UniProtKB/TrEMBL annotation:
It comes from the Eukaryota. It holds the Pfam family KYNU_C. It comes from Ceratotherium simum simum (Southern white rhinoceros). It catalyses: L-kynurenine + H2O = anthranilate + L-alanine + H(+); 3-hydroxy-L-kynurenine + H2O = 3-hydroxyanthranilate + L-alanine + H(+). Belongs to the kynureninase family. Coiled coil: none annotated. It is found in: Cytoplasm. HAMAP family: Kynureninase. Keywords: Cytoplasm, Hydrolase, Pyridine nucleotide biosynthesis, Pyridoxal phosphate. Gene3D superfamilies: Aspartate Aminotransferase, domain 1, Type I PLP-dependent aspartate aminotransferase-like (Major domain). This is Kynureninase. Signal peptide: none annotated.
Amino acid sequence: MEPSPLELPADTVQRIASEIGCHPTDERVALRLDEEDELKHFRDYFYMPKMRDLPPIDLSLVNKDENAIYFLGNSLGLQPKMVKTYLEEELDKWAKMGGYGHEVGKRPWITGDETILGLMNDIVGANEKEIALMNGLSVNLHLLLLSFFKPTPKRYKILLEAKAFPSDHYAIESQLQLHGLNVEESMRIIKPREGEETLRIEDILEVIEKEGDSIAVVLFSGLHFYTGQLFNIPAITKAGQAKGCFVGFDLAHAVGNVELHLHDWGVDFACWCSYKYLNAGAGGLAGAFIHEKHAYTIKPALVGWFGHELSTRFKMDNKLQLIPGVNGFRISNPPIFLVCSLQASLEIFRQATMKALRRKSILLTGYLEYMIKHYRSNDRAETKKPVVNIITPSSIEDRGCQLTLTFSAPMTYVFQNLGKRGVVCDKREPDGIRVAPVPLYNSFHDVYKFISLLSSVLDSAETKK
């Protein structure tokens, strides 16, 4: 299945079609791609929702016993089957020994987060001492900004992309207000060019070069939640730091989706959630990164007991011995049940590897793009049919697994009727539907079936006119 380094997904699809003697859009191509997929067995590690259990389903349109087409891993990943086992282990330990569970077992409750830190290393490309698992994403972002954003009369701005996720936007606004700064003057937002949906890297770098002396922190998404654009993290980091800025990233939509090398790229700080591509469940345990170069120079503005060195933590003498680096930012003891669900997923990532997952993801999303363009592109001669526009960048280097689609047909109608047919995706204002085939548990045949259902919905939208 693996394409050669120079082979684009479209070329792979056409090559396989030629090998088996059919059209590239034939179902047999999807089946062959699945047959050759070395990661396909990981699908069995997750619970896949059934059609009959989906709230918007129309049972007259589906086979109720079939699996749903779940393309919503960019919002909430599926449940790993081992979650229940790990939760039951801790519930059983709590029932049988009470407080002794703090110090014994596979996950002593005092160090539960630390027991799984090693599983995050390769996913974010960092050393274990540069990672902390704690809180929720927005809490971690606030804690990091309190330490990295130290405005001066000359350097007081925070740079971010247009339409950043609301939690980031609100966090930045409130941090600026906390320092008594004018939000409109201090929040520097980069917008795409007129008539374009995504940002050009040269425009981002130009703003940093021209205005960097007044920017204290560059804070970007690793991957934009709406457009699906993957930003050039190393280039932005290098440019920002060259102008004396701290550079951080919200990796909510990048972690577990694309390969990250935070340490090698020299990123100053980052944070992420775990319930999207990391499959840790709603409200899962979030993560934070601070580069080791800041371990002894950047300290938490707000301190808690779990930022104290473990060796002397229980002396209870109220003399803080702060853990250097990001683990000194921990405030409270780890929520062990959230540790359990995250562990169940991270163990799967360890087996699959991000490199192999990214390889499959490129082909899987490329196949989706190929099929959409074949059937519903603006370029097709049959312009009377409803068309689909992909606003996510077409370049492999500039996207993860998500494609954001807009339609000539009413978006709400399309979304509702996909839901009736068992397609689980989501819509985002103003007019996008996000679909994310996830390499850990989605198949090429899922994509094939999605295209068939999408065509059925769009055909029905045409008859409604």
